[in-house]
Amino acid sequence: MSSLTPRRLRAIGVLLAALVPTALIGPAARADTPVIPDFTDGFGLTEAADATEVHSSTDFTITVTTPQVSGPHKIRVFLPRGYATDPDKRWPVTYFLHGGGGSVNDAVAAPALRSDKMITVVPDGGLKGWYTDWLMQNTAVGAARWETFHLEQVIPYVDANLRTVPDRAHRAVVGLSMGGSGALHYAQARPGLFGHTASLSGGIDFAKAEVRAAVLATELNLTGAWCAVSSSSSPSGTGKCTGYGPYVDSDAVFGSPYPFLGADHLWNAYDPAAPANLSKLHDTEVTLYTGDRGLIDAHTATAAATVKARLDRLGIPSRLVDYGNGASLSPGCDGGHTYGCWAPAFADYVPRLEAAFATAATN
Asked: If we measure between CA atoms, which residue out of 179, 46, 190 comes closest to residue 122?
């Protein structure tokens, strides 16, 4: 049975469907089944058989395993509606990074991510992965090399299995909350991969004590506003914060957060707001969105203003949208840390990104 890969299992299913008489299958089974692309294992990723969730022919979720991150992990994909009917066309791709306590299904709450002009890929980022390779790999959550998983495995895996335009001018990384810091960090860590990045209500200034406290809260599974507000507003959520997973050591992700004798060097190395890291974005389109209301976005607004000011001093163009109490963005936005603001923010951002993709030259 080890030779029965997901591709072969699908092929067997098609063959059986052709051989079994329709009368024996029954009316329910005659309904058209959405067809999605086949994925071939590679880059350290193995697709889990019988775990694919097909929501439609342009919306599906595969599950993969990798030694880099313990457990099975989902990758949700939104394809343009013309993907199957135009088999010679290649598409730009945007990676959406969800927030803390969230999941790949959170992307459903932002309809603009379902674009007919690009592919959107939503990889699992863990309940508290923080889009980095953890300092400690022997905690209750096991292997946690999230950055390696995403940048060294998921991206080449997607390029190998979907018809992407595999260059930085046609690849973006965007995210919100925890994913907002991850998006900015990934664009800095691998400027050769991403030509566009956007952070929505991101914890992007790791020098702020409040941001460090948020990371510690996720490690210790201290549920609070960062988790409860962001995840409960997801259509896949229960309306309650389900937590950040097992308790781990407070130094598990970035080591000691205390700025004594260089103990917090990993925090500083990751810090998306650090001028040395921002200087890597000279050729990257940078967009920041934030409100300024509530316990969380009061701090993300300050962080976004800090990053914008530093980018300006570095001579790096960027766009900051501080929508304050939300009135200028959408009637459903209160300026807080919710999809009531993030969905219209993406509705504003995605057409701009699509236009940038359309005018970019192909390598």
From this structure: 179
* pTM (2 d.p.): 0.90
3-state secondary structure of 251: coil
Q: Do 160 and 82 contact (CB within 8 A), yes or no?
A: no
Judge residue 4's burial from the number of C-beta atoms within 10 Å of its C-beta, 0-12 exposed, 13-18 middle, 19 or more buried. Answer: exposed
Query: Cα angle vertex 270, ends 264, 274, to 5°?
Result: 95
Kind of pairing, strands 196-200 and 171-176? parallel
Q: Average pLDDT in the 188-202 region? A: 98
Average pLDDT over residues 59-63: 98
How far apart CA 294 and CA 210 sit, in angstroms, is 13
Mean pLDDT computed over 101-112: 94
Cβ proximity of 200 and 290 under 8 Å = yes
Q: What is the dihedral of CA 126, 127, 130, 132, to 10 degrees?
A: -30
φ, ψ at 352 (rounded to 5°) = -70, -40
Length of the chain in terms of residues written: 363
Nearest-angstrom CA–CA distance, 351 and 117:
9
Query: In this structure, how many other beta carbons lie within 10 angstroms of the beta carbon of residue 362?
Result: 10
Q: Among 183, 286, 297, which residue's Cα sits nearest to residue 229?
A: 297
Q: Write down the residue that tokens 């991403």 correspond to.
A: 194
Q: What are phi and psi of 241, to 5 degrees?
A: -75, 125
Cβ of 142: how many Cβ atoms within 10 Å? 11
